[in-house]
Specification:
This protein has four helices and six strands. The protein has helices spanning about 20-30, 45-50, 95-105, 130-150; strands at about 5-10, 35-40, 55-65, 70-75, 110-120, 165-170. Strands 2-1-3-5-4-6 form a six-stranded mixed beta sheet, with helices on both faces. Helix 1 links the parallel strand 1 and strand 2 (about 35-40). Residues about 160-165 have low confidence and may be disordered. Keywords: Aspartyl protease, Hydrolase, Protease.
């Protein structure tokens, strides 16, 4: 299989649901391209099931790294910078899960990229994003589109759709 986009997060925990909201937005944009878009509610080892069998995976999630809320970063999976759901004491981090999955012989993607959106509030129950994170949605959608469907015109997202539209580390 080709590419999968995984929106990760808790949709009823304010900004933690940003990955789910970005996945919903890109699902329509990627319709008919062969890119699968799924939602997941936990990271680590459980995430392996969502990405197993694909050549490329793009994971979008909230992160709490001390950056200004709404900051969007596109980073490699093994850079050691976790996102809120990719670090769990129950599952381990993404890098560890990928390493274990490969040692077990799972068919995991050759390329795993993360699009992280710095959260402002991940403690309050609510389905609405904070203002800063809501304002960052177009930039996050553009970063996911650039990672999942390079060269595709995302229409209406302007220059933010290029890799430089979001902070990029890879």
């Amino acid at each position: 299989m080709g590419t999968v986009v995984v929106g990760l997060g808790n949709p009823i925990l304010t900004d933690d649901g940003v990955g789910i909201k970005v996945a919903a937005a890109v699902r329509e944009l990627l319709a008919g391209t062969g890119v699968e878009v799924v939602e997941a509610y936990s990271g680590g080892l459980r995430l392996m099931e969502a990405i197993s069998g694909y050549r490329r995976a793009v994971i979008v999630d909230a992160m709490t790294g001390g950056l200004p809320p709404g900051t969007v970063l596109r980073i490699g999976a093994l850079e050691g910078r976790g996102t809120r759901n990719l670090h769990s004491s129950h599952d381990g981090d993404l890098a560890g899960a990928l390493r274990l999955g490969r040692e077990l012989g799972l068919n995991l993607p050759e390329l795993v990229e993360l699009v992280g959106v710095e959260a402002g509030d991940v403690e309050t129950f609510g389905e609405e994003l904070s203002e800063a994170v809501r304002a960052a949605l177009p930039k996050a959608v553009a970063a996911v589109m650039a990672a999942a469907a390079p060269g595709m015109d995302p229409g209406g997202l302007g220059d933010a759709a290029t890799a430089g539209g979001a902070g990029e580390r890879s």
